[in-house]
Amino acid sequence: xxxxxxxxxxxxxxxxxxxxxxxxxxxxxxxxxxxxxxxxxxxxxxxxxxxxxxxxxxxxxxxxxxxxxxxxxxxxxxxxxxxxxxxxxxxxxxxxxxxxxxxxxxxxxxxxxxxxxxxxxxxxxxxxxxxxxxxxxxxxxxxxxxxxxxxxxxxxxxxxxxxxxxxxxxxxxxxxxxxxxxxxxxxxxxxxxxxxxxxxxxxxxxxxxxxxxxxxxxxxxxxxxxxxxxxxxxxxxxxxxxxxxxxxxxxxxxxxxxxxxxxxxxxxxxxxxxxxxxxxxxxxxxxxxxxxxxxxxxxxxxxxxxxxxxxxxxxxxxxxxxxxxxxxxxxxxxxxxxxxxxxxxxxxxxxxxxxxxxxxxxxxxxxxxxxxxxx
Length: 375
Fold this sequence. Notes:
Layout: H1 3-13, E1 21-25, H2 32-43, E2 51-56, E3 70-74, H3 78-87, E4 90-93, E5 106-109, E6 132-135, H4 141-148, E7 155-157, H5 173-177, E8 183-187, H6 215-228, E9 230-234, E10 253-255, H7 258-263, H8 268-272, E11 277-280, H9 285-289, E12 295-299, H10 303-309, E13 324-326, H11 329-340, H12 347-357, H13 365-373
Parallel strand pairs: 1-2, 1-4, 2-3, 4-5, 5-6, 6-7, 8-9, 8-11, 9-10, 11-12, 12-13
């Protein structure tokens, strides 16, 4: 919506009567930081006082969910959406911004991950449209102000609410996969080519994933995992263009999508928290996973290309990546063998970076934010 139109709408409706409406948004729908705030509200019966409205890309997927005083509406339902917006007491989002119309509405952007890559040209947040934006630590205040274009007086230091899920016992991996393994590794690469026009790296991954360059590579990796009785789960980023992804499931390599977790009513971080190790690259997920103090491996075979295309906020980005750097299959094998043999050379480095970037390391993040907002 053009800024001039927004100004007119705000001028007309910015003094409408506030009602006990909480409007929420996330991407993917009904997930991430906003979903954890929602769960906390429901667990503590806040829906007895507030009507909670979720704005969704696809509300059909959630029609079966029946919760008192909770309403799922399509983002395309302009009139009903507009009604709730002009009367909303709170707007809570973590991805696309919800248009704040009423001056009395309190709007918070929870964001969706600790920043490692440059964002300053994306224009993701209009700071005039929010009251608050989450920042994970004092160390990040200057960085968030620069990258998100949000003044420091609007930055509030809390960690991602979704981190609460890391402590959940809801998910059991041996039950989920129907077999018990000695160790479980989750591989979560960030997206390089999103659905649409955005390209963060034009490095050619023939199989659509780092390190594995052929079907034979996938089979070799599977043999290593099979010999050591380790399961590796690949969880692609929801924004990744999957048309180039060619890694099929093998005996000890499984591919899990967001839809698979939704179907089983399991949050991604409830799933993530049960793994013995994480492999990623430049995804912010590892900053959260540091709280578990478990092993992390970083695939860096396209780091130079990624730095040239997208860019990192740190000059020496490896300094902030506390774990084995993996550029080829031999290094991948070593990471897996070290995990099997309980060899951990990065314990102190993980703790150092975790203390730097994570102010809170417990499961009380949603509770802190709800109390801060005065809900």
